[in-house]
Amino acid sequence: MLTVACIVKDWEKAKDIIIKRPHEIYTSKIKYGYTPAYWASFYNNVTMLNHMLRTIESFNVTDEPREQILRDTFERGSDDGYTPAHAAARAGNIESLEFLVQNCPSGNMVLKTKTKKGITPAHSATYYGKQDALDFIMHATP
Question: Is the separation of the CB atoms in 88 and 121 below 8 Å?
């Protein structure tokens, strides 16, 4: 499963899974709903995020609009609503935050996403003491 490979940082296995079952990029999740993009953002693996994006861009989309696939990949939250932007902010990963702003259909609004308890990526950065991530978020959002 792609999500598990990302959790344990087995990036070569993750790439292999994407080649064999590319739909797992946007359908795979584990207990509590965390996705492959969540873990790639948490570990600041922008190379993997780009690999996911390039794979999605290569899809011959017929049934599901590409924008929805991108949302399901890079904007979907866990069962509690924690998104890849929350993960990147929590870990202080500016490069992942930049990737998400540049590539999510919602653009910089992805940084205003709220969990079910109203927690934003800025809250996550603040709580975990990631000042650089908080500064990025504050400058990137209107």
Answer: yes
| DSSP sequence for 88-131 | HHHHT-HHHHHHHHHHSTTGGGGGG---TT---HHHHHHHTT-H
- CA torsion sign for 90, 95, 98, 104 is negative
pLDDT in tens, 32-85: 899 999 999 999 999 999 999 999 999 876 666 889 999 999 999 999 999 999
d(CA 58, CA 114): 30
CB count within 10 Å of CB 65 equals 11
Please state the pTM of the whole predicted model: 0.93
Q: How many helices and strands (H and E) does the chain possess?
A: 10, 0
